[in-house]
Amino acid sequence: MRSILLIVLMCWCGASVWAVEDDSKNLKYTPISLSALSADWWTELESLSIENKLDYLSLLEQDIKRELKKTSLDENSENAALIPPLIQQLSVQYSKAESATPGIEETKDALVPPETVEQWLAFYNQTYRSERDAALLTEELARLTLLNNERDKAISRQLVDYRRLAEGSKERAVLAVEILRLQLTALISSERMGHLKKRQSYLEKRYKGQQTLLENAITQLKPDPKKRQIWTQQRSVLLEDIKAGSKSLYPLEQGVGYEPDILPLQVRLEALALSAKLANQTITLALIELKTAFDSALEGGNAASSAPQETVLKQWGVQKGKLSAQFNDLFRAMNESSDQMSDTERSQAWAKLQQARQYMHESELREREVERLLKTYRTISGERNGGWKSGLAQTVSWGRSAVAVVGEVLYYPLFSINESPVTLKDLVWVLLVMVIAILISAHTRKALVRFGESKKSISESSLFTIGRILHYIIIVSAVLIGFTTLGIDLSKLALVAGALSVGIGFGLQSIFNNFISGLILLFERPLKVGDLIELESGVRGRIRSINVRSTQVATWDNIDILVPNSEFISGRVTNYTFSDDLRRLHIPFGVAYGSDKELVRKAVLEAAEKVPHTLTNHDHQADVWLINYGDSSLDFELVVWVKGNTLPKRGNPKAIYLWEIETALAQYGVEIPFPQRDLHVRSVDTAIFSSLNPVDNKKNTQS
Predict the structure, then answer these.
(1) What's the pLDDT band for 21 if we cut at 50, 70, 90?
(2) Which of the 8 DSSP states describes residue 575?
(3) How far is CA 140 from CA 51, 147, 180, 697, in A?
(4) Model confidence at 636: pLDDT above 90
């Protein structure tokens, strides 16, 4: 029985070995031909195993060498020489696929929860590196995707050119080699992107796990008295170093022993390196003090205020900007004067510059650790203090976070003008300046109106002109301030004005003409607000306002008409109140023939006196003129003087006088004629006459 089982087992193993060997030999491979290159030959690789892919690439390399010899192409040419290394790189990429990336399940055991403040801070740095590496992989994948898209377009264009060439020609073979090179490069890039995506997914999962452990570990941290003693010693050493460094830095910054503003490059480099070192020591001291306070709070002590560390962070933010500016200035100075220095001086100078850069980099790392530990310390201190203090600390934390988010949004660069970034804050500031300017202009004009109402001696038109000019000045000033805020060079506005002149010469000519005409009306003042005018078109009324493009005229019927300003400059305008508001009205009327002229004069002058607009002084007496012998009346004219500005704004003065004239003539019994005609009949038909007088006709018949 055992023999039978042994024989069956040997047969099964042999069959399995035969099946594997048969599967390895069953490789689908289509030979490559440079004269008839298939555009999608590489798709055969997708369904193969790793081992078969390597065999496929080996056969591909042999085919390409054979085709190069067949077409008499040089194997050492630019594209042909690159194909073997590309195939080798692709083989390496396929080999890497066999080593699987560890998953999140395997890494959970490797993530050890921190127990002390020092371990928690180290674990935070690991979490930050995972987040940073995942972000870098995202950027790299985006870059590779862009390159692949461009490469695919290039392959498509070259395949089109390849099909146009004659089959069997050397040019077709050369282009086929170039296409193969691009396709192999694309395969390498795609395979690399696959590895990067797996790595990215792994890092993102790992980061989430680290973040969860980091947040959960806050409440599980334990004090470490031994570490606290070490931090206390480190704090004392740092204080002494900072004190000594400050003494050494002072003469360098003040330029003791050198002429003012003429410090040697070596002295400036020494000062930069020492300043960067002091900044690094200061923020490291803040980190040590914060860790000490954190550990004391864990042990049950009172949570101290975190204000000193917050102050250090703010000071470091200012100092970082100054150090970066000094570093850039000295870097440019080094490049400019490098040829004038000896090798030893140049080496020492670059070493100082590199030392300063290293201190600045370490300070930035310490800054991030202080910010993270400070945020966690606020949470711990809130829990230790409890009650309203915890709520207050949380509220303050939320407020700071909100301010930080708003600050990031406001200072986010939207676009650039003259290489100067324009942020949302700049746009909000410009909008705020314009709103304030409009409000100031509106209130200024209202104040002028109220001043004019209280001072009757000042004309309304003068106040309107002053208000309009102030409005233009305020708005133009706000626009200039807005341009300066956005970084627009005002000296270059001449170019903009030149460009606008071209537009004004075409589409904006009419608008610009009306604008200039409005300015002429305001400054020359041929027309003023309140003037009584009449245009060539027959429009008659009072001017209400003179605007940028048009003038508002109110007719007797209270209809506002907007008249373009250019019409007042180029056309004929009758201004009844230009130099003097006195004007003479001519009111025509007629009476019947035979009426007493003196009686007519008396009645009409009495009627004129009843109208309140009539002037009755010695120089401007009303009068009655006989002007014409009409067909059915004696035509008279009442001539009266009135003040144009006292006439009713919504009434016709002629109608008022005619009303009183008719009343006065009726009282004195003067007849107002109407047209009459006398009809003389020379002959008429008897039948017509009979129909007109039927009674007389009947009497004649009876008789």
Answers:
(1) very low
(2) E
(3) 29, 11, 25, 127
(4) yes
Mean of the per-residue pLDDT values of the chain:
77
Helices (H), ranges, 611-693: 653-667, 686-692
Mean pLDDT, residues 674-696 taken together: 66
Backbone dihedral region of 595: left (phi > 0), alpha (psi from -120 to 50 degrees) or beta?
beta
Q: Is the dihedral of CA 160, 165, 167, 169 positive or negative?
A: negative
Residue 699, CA atoms < 13 Å, CB-side half-sphere: 3
Amino acid letter for position 298: L
Q: Which of 209-223, 295-309, 435-449, 570-584 has the lowest mean pLDDT?
A: 295-309
> What is the percentage of the chain residues whose pLDDT exceeds 70?
76
Q: Which residues on adjacent β-strands are paired with residue 415?
A: 422
Which SS3 state, helix, strand or coil, does residue 257 take?
coil
344, 258 Cβ separation under 8 angstroms: no
Contact 166, 114 (CB under 8 A): no
CATH code of the domain made up of 581-703? 3.30.70.100
Cα–Cα dist 106/205, whole Å: 11
For the chain, the farthest-separated pair of C-alpha atoms sits apart, in whole angstroms, at 177
User: On the CB side of 115, how many CA atoms lie within 13 Å of its CA?
Assistant: 3
Report yes or no: 534 and 549 within 8 Å, Cβ to Cβ.
no
Pairing of strands 540-546, 532-535: antiparallel
C-alpha 362/C-alpha 281 separation (Å) is 10
From 290, 108, 118, 366, select the one nearest 221 (Cα to Cα).
118
Q: Would you state the pLDDT for residue 152?
A: 87
Length of the chain counted residue by residue: 703
Tokens of 640: 């009266």
Q: Residue 675 is encoded by which pair of tokens?
A: 């047209």
With 80 as the cut, is the pLDDT of residue 111 above it?
no
Determine contact, residues 561/501, Cβ cutoff 8 Å: no
Q: What is the dihedral of CA 215, 217, 223, 226, to 10 degrees?
A: -100
pLDDT at 589 over 50: yes
Task: Please say if the pLDDT value at position 309 is more than 50.
Answer: yes
Q: What is the pLDDT of residue 639?
A: 92
Cβ burial of 218 (10 Å; 0-12, 13-18, 19+) is: middle
Token pair recorded at residue 476: 């133009």
Q: How confident is the model at residue 108 (pLDDT cuts 50, 70, 90)?
A: very low
Quick one: which of 444, 450, 452 has its CA closest to 469?
444
Identify the band that residue 500 occupies on the pLDDT scale cut at 50, 70 and 90.
low
CB atoms within 10 A of CB 191: 19
Quick count: other Cβ atoms within 10 Å of Cβ 613?
17
pTM exceeding the 0.70 threshold for the entire prediction: no
- Beta-strand ranges (E) seen in 160-257 are none
Secondary-structure percent of the chain, ordered helix, strand, coil, rounded to 5: 70, 10, 25
CA dist list (Å): 2 to 7, 10, 11, 13, 603: 9, 12, 14, 17, 157
Token couple for 202:
């792994």
pLDDT at 206 over 60: yes
In the chain, count of helices (H) and strands (E)?
20, 10
Are 604 and 659 in contact by the 8 Å Cβ rule? The answer is no
Residue closest to 170 by CA, chosen among 284, 291, 35: 35
Q: How far is CA 146 from CA 136, 180, 556, in A?
A: 16, 20, 73
Residue 62 has pLDDT above 80, yes or no: yes
